[in-house]
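ok trying this again, last paste got cut off
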Amino acid sequence: MPITLAPGVAYQLDVTLVPLPAELFGNVTSAATGAPISGASIQLVGYDNPNNYQATTDVDGYYDIQGIAPGQYDVTVSASGYNPATR
């Protein structure tokens, strides 16, 4: 939206910016061996918002969750044969 300014006239322009979505990515590995864990589940549950997200690791233990709304989340990682971890 263009704005035309005239000499000697003051204008107020209030703008509201929307935060960009966040991204969470990384690798899930075994604490015992350091080997990647394929098929691990990563769940984000909104702490102060109603948003939930999830991903599953690939064969290299890698995951990537994009488009996460700003806010606080509990992150839980779980895999068969391992104790789940929550942060």
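PB: full thing came through this time. The chain has no helices and six strands.
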